[in-house]
Here is the input.
Amino acid sequence: MTLQLPAPDGTLRTYDPRTEPLLLTPGTPFTSRTVYSAAHVVADPFADTTPDSPAAVDWDATLAFRRHLWSHGLGVAEAMDTAQRGMGLDWAGAAELIRRSAAEAKAVGGSIACGVGTDQLTGPASLAEVRTAYEEQLALVEAAGARTILMASRALAAAASGPEDYLEVYGHLLRQASEPVILHWLGPMFDPALEGYWGSSDLDAATDTFLEVIAAHPDKVDGIKVSLLDAAREIDIRRRLPQGVRCYTGDDFNYPELIAGDEQGFSHALLGIFDPLGPLAAEAVRRLDTGDKAGFRALLDPTVALSRHLFQTPTRFYKTGVVFLAWLAGHQSHFTMVGGLQSARSLPHFARAYELADGLGLFPDPKLAEDRMKTLLALYGVNQ
Here is the structure.
């Protein structure tokens, strides 16, 4: 059966849904790359909330999705921006998510790394208060037994007067960390409040400061996650890292080429797009494990159009598309998000996301995805 899907110009176009999924089976962790999928949270659709209320999370469905990722050999990057950190999920909710997910990871033998930030600060803060907030979250993640991801801080961006403040704060935290951490550079396209991070809006100067932090504490840095959507800059940073410090790509536009690498090295991965792509991404990396770079690219290159669509400007609302696809794929029973963020993208955007994902064979049950797409279309007044 065909579907009538709305186009951006207001017209309807005919689409023939796929009838068979891409057959992808769970498997063991990878040998050639370390790969984390940043994971979304599932809202409780029956909670009586407002957009300003604390997040009401469906914990069973949220943890079930993490088990799905682990079953395919992926690690989980928890309580990151994909989980609506700072866009519906406050620190109290993130702390509970970290505790529950870390316990689940231990129970099933899954790999997990958790975001440490300063989002308990709700107003202007001093550098000392920023350090204290980071320390509180670092202690919780380490107590939970998870690897730490030191996230970029809106409060630090507001409080810092220059590069020296970043060097001082991050140096202080790295000296305290009991295990090597992952440093996360999130660009302003993901969060406008992070403009000028590392003390400068000049990316060359900011890169120098970022690398100075790492060079001063190489034994305390497992790796860095670069989310600037700039492949050339990531490659430059990757080549300048101290020996043994990994580069985890966070580039949702150019990830196949960055993970595949070149004659001078490659990137590992910590990606929001691997939430909807999990099984397919895992299969691609297993091909890379055997040395089949062409097979890896053949599987992953066709997914870039979907990723670029989900992460289109304003990029920070990519989470809406991620949750939408999780609903169509049957990972959750509804399309509701914490903070009401399901309203952040248009119907034509959803229609194109469905079309691209269906074309890739991402839906385990294509008929279920088709029926749910029909439900959404009817809600908007597009009857088939």
About this structure: The two ends are 10 Å apart (CA to CA). The longest strand covers residues 221-227. The chain has a mean pLDDT of 96.
